[in-house]
């Protein structure tokens, strides 16, 4: 009777050991799977990064655009922060044009446009300086009436 009992215990212990081993193997398998998944994840991340950079050196289209934007923002900071709405080129040009048209009559619109273009080239954001340009060496670009009017204004 006792032998049978102890035998049963031995059997049970063997089974337990086997079950433990199987469990460990299964866990090991899971570990392997996890490693594989991680490897895949890393690979995908690397691939994504490479795609973003594009080619061997330098950046891809997106990366270059982002870099350009960053540079612009940095330059803006040097000049004193992000441009306000009125400093944006379109708004600024409207302001410059209005300023120019107060100096010249609308019938000289072509001259105004060239003046505006010149002003914009020389002074990126100071619209007030258009007056100094308008009364300055740009006089040669005006039609005779405009020149007469300006010279009388300038005196």
Task: Sum this structure up briefly.
This protein is mainly α. The protein is built from six helices and no strands.
Features:
rod-shaped, mainly alpha, 155 residues, 6 helices, single chain
List the helices and strands and how they pair.
Layout lengths: L1 H52 L7 H18 L10 H15 L5 H14 L7 H5 L9 H11 L1
Helix pairs in contact: 3-4
DSSP E strands, number? 0
Order of helices and strands: HHHHHH
Unreliable segments (pLDDT under 50, ≥5 consecutive)? none
* Relative strand content: under 5%
CA(first)-CA(last) distance:
132 Å
The average pLDDT is: 68
- How many helices does DSSP assign? 6
**Biggest sheet descriptor:** none
Q: Any idea what the radius of gyration is?
A: 39 Å
- What count of domains describes the coordinates? 2
Structural class: mainly alpha
Fraction of helical residues: over 70%
Overall 3D form: rod-shaped
3D structure, described in words:
The protein is an all-alpha fold. It folds into two domains: 9-72; 108-154, no CATH class. It has six helices and no strands. It has helices at residues 2-53, 61-78, 89-103, 109-122, 130-134, 144-154. α3 crosses α4 (109-122). The chain is rod-shaped and about 125 Å long. The mean pLDDT is 68. Residues 40-54 have a biased composition (Basic residues). It comes from Ophiophagus hannah (King cobra). Residues 1-39, 55-68, 89-101 have a biased composition (Basic and acidic residues).
